[in-house]
Amino acid sequence: MKILGIDIGGSGLKGAPVDTATGRQLAERHKVEIESPCAPAKAAAAAGEIARHFNWKGPVGIGFPGVVCGSTIMTASNLGESWIGLDGVKVFSKATGCPVKMVNDADAAGLAEMRFGAGKGQKGTVLLITAGTGIGSALFYRGVLFPNTEFGHIQYRGKSVEKFCAASVRKKKNLSWEEWAGRLSIYLTTMEGLLWPDMIIVGGGVSAKHDKWMKFVKTRTKVVPAKLFNGAGIIGAALAGE
Ligand code: BGC
Known about the structure:
8 helices, Nucleotidyltransferase, domain 5, six-stranded mixed sheet
């Protein structure tokens, strides 16, 4: 099936048509920048621009950086409070003129990695963490997703752990890759003590630069970078649109 996948992030919306049978992106992705926080109307207009860019008339899948229950947006920590309670499917269907399905962005990335990437064939407990503007999580057992896990909001020193080790924190605090990986290790060690995963996949923009930081990560569990790199968000969003 051909589905337009749109990944909403703190710095922009990225989209591309995807063949969901193969996980292949059918065209180069199109990005529309936004700033966080971002009003719903602005992000909706950006999604509309992406659909128009591809002259898209078919189904659309959207990965959203917050909890999505059914079609309702329950949280949007990095986009702002104006999103809470909105019917996201309605907002984005209107903006794109296409039928829309929506899921949490990290769940979307997890779906893609489990079907086509680093988690392919993994039958045990797999935890995927995305490190970008915030920290997202997706948890799988025997290949089945437990949705909306929000492990980026586990408390560390009185704050959401994403304020300690998201990729955006590395840039903001000018941390070296080693310092950042040290922070990530503290977080992943906590998670492995709670979930005992067989594998941890780290996705988001940092996955493409894994040679810079992976060597500094110290955990008991095998940690691997997302195989689809940052593309997992778009491909997974398309899978969610099936
Ligand atoms: C949100 C998650 C999201 C993650 C990555 C967090 O702040 O609460 O829902 O998956 O950021 O975008």
